[in-house]
């Protein structure tokens, strides 16, 4: 019922240098001895000829279906998911955005593919201040729906560059209506839909399966940001058989202090005790501020299975229209939040908007390397694992743009050849062999809703192919 309107790091021994890398080293040494460039020249990951011209980047059809220098590193990470939670950040554009974007089939489907291999979903995404639920747009997310209602939270005081795409923070007071500083009655109401009941039906995911392990109970992790005048956090568990329902009786209610009133910016979180369901079907959690006189900038909440930690969770941190360069420029100070969310790896899934902005393959490579460096600085892990995927064939490009786009996977391959902690999944070639290419109008009509965005069938086939290549059958 709705109101009426009013972590552990993984250390892996480096492999011995491959013959290709030894050859590159010898060539570079010969170039310096021959006087080709000053000896104090800054080194780069870019492939360079002795005359400093960039080496040709391969076309996608010349690149392996997947490539990494360190297959055992990534295999070890997937193996660890058999006993612990492995969190992966998915950075991309509208086709990877859910809820509220064009990724409302793709994002649930890649997580469903992970569930097929591990048989469990150990936790949800970090859900923020959205309304998304039911069988209409915006559809529910993978195992989550959310509701907001007026009078609700105020706009957040957190600077946009400190947040991440798809994370909508909000400033909450205690629920006291006109007695609260912002007149608030209703908080962020997040629903655990352990059977995926509200996702886009086009994802073709069964909704009669218990994907999320409820055995032993469910906890929640709540994230908030500091502010010099901050209040603290109030949460209420409101289990119900019919959701969403702000008026379901509470089974636990608690105000928690994280010392959020600080001058310096930080993202803090805490984990609740087990949230009682009292035999009811769905677990709802309402999160608010704790004070009538002060606001609390709440970032989001995720549900955590208490006794079933195994599995992989892939959270979308994506937004419509983003290119790699846009992400770098817009989210320069999001390290505190990225680090607090505790990711083990990141997938970069860009391409369609990059080429639409006229980015060459060489520039695409540079942007990828810059974003990888940014993510590793955020995580404070110079070996943080990165997975490079990309968009399949798209329409609406000039012949010159198509030539550059064909070499985007080659740019990713060059990054992985220079970085042992990068893995490339050749999304373009995987789908090309399935007919997702020029000259196949009937097949493209099945896979593309327009020049760029996927149909549900396209999203399903792409997710199946990429996750099969990444995790195996």
Report the oligomer. Answer: single chain
When the domains are counted, the total is 2
H/E series: HEHEHEEEEEEEEEEEHHEHHEHHEHHH
Number of strands: 16
> Main β-sheet: number of strands, strand sense, barrel status?
6 strands, mixed
Task: Please indicate the percent range of residues in DSSP E strands (runs of 2 or more).
Answer: 15-25%
Distance between the termini: 42 Å
Physical arrangement of strands within the biggest beta sheet: 1-16-15-14-2-13
Number of helices: 12
Describe this structure in words.
This protein has 473 residues and is α+β, with helices and mostly antiparallel strands. The protein has two domains: 60-82 and 315-471, SGNH hydrolase (Rossmann fold); 123-308, Jelly Rolls. It has twelve helices and 16 strands. The protein has helices at 19-33, 71-80, 106-118, 324-330, 335-340, 352-356, 361-379, 399-406, 408-418, 427-432, 441-447, 456-471, and strands spanning 66-68, 85-92, 144-147, 154-155, 170-172, 188-192, 218-225, 233-237, 252-256, 267-271, 283-289, 296-305, 311-316, 345-350, 386-390, 422-425. It has a six-stranded mixed beta sheet, with helices on both faces. It is globular. The relative contact order is 0.18. Mean pLDDT is 90; it is low at 5-53.
């Amino acid at each position: 019922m709705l109101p009426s309107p009013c972590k552990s790091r993984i250390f892996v021994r480096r492999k011995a240098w491959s013959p290709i890398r030894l050859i590159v080293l010898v060539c570079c040494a010969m170039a310096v001895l021959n006087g080709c460039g000053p000896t104090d020249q800054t080194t780069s990951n870019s492939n360079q000829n002795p005359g400093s011209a960039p080496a040709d980047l391969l076309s996608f059809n010349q690149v392996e279906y997947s490539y990494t220098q360190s297959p055992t590193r990534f295999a070890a990470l997937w193996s660890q998911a058999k006993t612990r939670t492995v969190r992966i950040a998915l950075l991309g554009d509208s086709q990877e955005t859910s809820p509220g974007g064009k990724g409302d089939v793709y994002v649930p489907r890649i997580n469903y593919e992970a569930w097929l291999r591990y048989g469990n979903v150990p936790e949800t995404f970090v859900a923020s201040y959205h309304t998304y639920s039911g069988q209409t747009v915006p559809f529910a997310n993978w195992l989550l729906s959310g509701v907001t209602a007026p009078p609700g939270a105020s706009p957040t005081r957190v600077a946009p560059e400190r947040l991440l795409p798809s994370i909508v923070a909000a400033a909450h007071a205690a629920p006291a209506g006109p007695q609260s500083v912002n007149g608030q009655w209703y908080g962020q109401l997040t629903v655990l839909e352990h059977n995926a009941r509200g996702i886009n039906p086009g994802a073709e995911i069964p909704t009669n399966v218990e994907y999320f392990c409820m055995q032993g109970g469910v906890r929640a992790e709540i994230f908030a940001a500091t502010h010099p005048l901050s209040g603290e956090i109030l949460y209420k568990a409101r289990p119900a058989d019919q959701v969403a329902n702000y008026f379901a009786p509470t089974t636990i209610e608690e105000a928690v202090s994280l010392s959020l009133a600080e001058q310096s910016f930080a993202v803090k979180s805490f984990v609740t005790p087990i949230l009682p369901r009292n035999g009811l079907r769905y677990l709802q959690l309402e999160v608010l501020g704790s004070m009538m006189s002060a606001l609390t900038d709440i970032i989001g909440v995720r549900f955590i299975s208490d006794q079933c930690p195994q599995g992989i969770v892939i959270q979308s941190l994506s937004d419509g229209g983003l290119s790699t360069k846009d992400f770098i420029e817009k989210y320069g100070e999001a390290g505190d939040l990225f680090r607090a969310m505790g990711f083990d790896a990141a997938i970069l899934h860009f391409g369609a908007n990059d080429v639409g902005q006229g980015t060459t393959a060489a520039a695409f490579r540079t942007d990828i390397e810059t974003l990888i460096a940014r993510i590793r600085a955020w995580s404070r892990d110079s070996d943080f694992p990165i997975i490079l995927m990309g968009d399949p064939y798209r329409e609406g490009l000039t012949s010159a743009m198509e030539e550059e786009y064909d070499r985007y996977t080659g740019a990713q391959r060059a990054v992985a050849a220079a970085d042992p902690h990068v893995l490339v999944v050749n999304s373009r070639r995987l789908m090309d062999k399935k007919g997702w290419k020029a000259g196949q109008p009937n097949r493209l009509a099945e896979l593309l809703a327009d020049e760029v965005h996927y149909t549900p069938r396209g999203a399903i086939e792409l997710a199946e192919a990429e996750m099969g290549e990444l995790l195996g059958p």
